[in-house]
């Protein structure tokens, strides 16, 4: 639990369209709100989170903002959990860095586990 008394934080990362979606001329279905931890789906459905990361957000930004402090508290005897949740193909394996090919990934693209 942090100083605010909150023990659960939720972060959302907006992934870019993948190559298949681009070829199919798919459209972005949500947008981020500048300066706010929120996304808008369609014209008026707003959802707020503790953290929202845009498509251009790098792995290190997400790690430094959401994960690094959790790792530190583990070394002080506390438990912490990072859960990646989403539909198939949404980037969970990439974000966590548990893909076997991650050994060949540029250091700036490393996920949570290798860091």
Can you tell me about this structure?
With 115 residues, the protein is an alpha+beta fold. It is built from 3 helices and 5 strands, in the order E-H-E-E-E-E-H-H. The strands form 2 sheets. It has a 3-stranded antiparallel β-sheet with strand order 2-3-4, with no helix packed on it. It is globular. The model has no long low-confidence stretch (mean pLDDT 79).
Question: What are the SSEs and their pairings?
Answer:
Layout: E1 11-13, H1 19-23, E2 30-32, E3 38-41, E4 45-48, E5 51-53, H2 59-74, H3 92-96
Highlighted features:
three-stranded antiparallel sheet, single chain, globular, two-stranded parallel sheet, alpha+beta, 3 helices, 15% strand, 115 residues
What is the average per-residue confidence, as pLDDT, rounded to a whole number?
A: 79
Main pleated sheet: 3 strands, antiparallel
Q: How many helices does DSSP assign?
A: 3
Q: Please tell me how large the radius of gyration is.
A: 16 Å
- Sketch the topology as an H/E string, one letter per element: EHEEEEHH
Structural class: alpha+beta
Strand proportion, as a percent range, falls in 5-15%
Write down the overall geometry.
globular
Order of strands in the sheet with the most strands? 2-3-4
Proportion of residues in helical segments: 10-25%
Number of strands: 5
Q: pLDDT below 50 for ≥5 consecutive residues: which ranges? A: none
Report the end-to-end length measured between terminal Cα atoms.
23 Å
């Amino acid at each position: 639990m942090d100083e605010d008394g909150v023990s659960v934080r939720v972060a959302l990362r907006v992934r870019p369209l993948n190559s298949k979606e681009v070829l199919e001329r798919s459209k972005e279905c949500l947008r981020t709100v500048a300066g706010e931890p929120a996304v808008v789906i369609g014209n008026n459905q707003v959802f707020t989170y503790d953290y929202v990361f845009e498509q251009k957000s790098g792995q290190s930004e997400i790690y430094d903002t959401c994960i690094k402090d959790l790792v530190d508290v583990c070394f002080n005897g506390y438990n912490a959990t990072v859960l990646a949740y989403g539909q198939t193909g949404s980037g969970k394996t990439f974000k966590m860095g548990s893909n076997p090919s991650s050994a060949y990934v540029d250091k700036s693209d490393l996920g949570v586990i290798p860091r």
